[in-house]
Amino acid sequence: MKIKVNHQYKQALILRTDLKMSTGKKVAQGAHASVIAVEYARKYTPAIHQAWGKEGQKKIALKVTSETDLLQIYQEAKDAGLPCSLIQDAGLTQLEPGSKTAVAIGPAKAEQVDRITSKLKLL
């Protein structure tokens, strides 16, 4: 029997598709974004961080097609007061130094994350 879990909290990882990153590079950039946002949440919203952890740390991977779109999503999350991070690549492998590659939003209440990300498509 499968038990349905009602997730109240989630994290969204948003990656740029216009940079043509390899799959491994996308995973690394998303992981960087996730860790930084989670550390922020652990420090500033510890109750939400704990609840998200107990629910299984739900994440969703989404995409944008430009730096402008990525920066807009990041700004919306900041303006909403949500834990978030913006990743800029060091430029050691595939990308130019300073390339903005990924954003993480949350962990936060799912409806707050959805207000910002619902228009985005799955990665």
From TrEMBL:
InterPro entries: Pep_tRNA_hydro_II_dom_sf, PTH2. Its EC number is 3.1.1.29. One of its GO terms (molecular function) is peptidyl-tRNA hydrolase activity. Pfam families: PTH2. Keywords: Hydrolase. It catalyses: an N-acyl-L-alpha-aminoacyl-tRNA + H2O = an N-acyl-L-amino acid + a tRNA + H(+). This is peptidyl-tRNA hydrolase. It is an enzyme of class 3 (hydrolase). The keyword Hydrolase applies. It comes from Candidatus Lokiarchaeum ossiferum. Belongs to the PTH2 family. Gene3D superfamilies: Bit1.
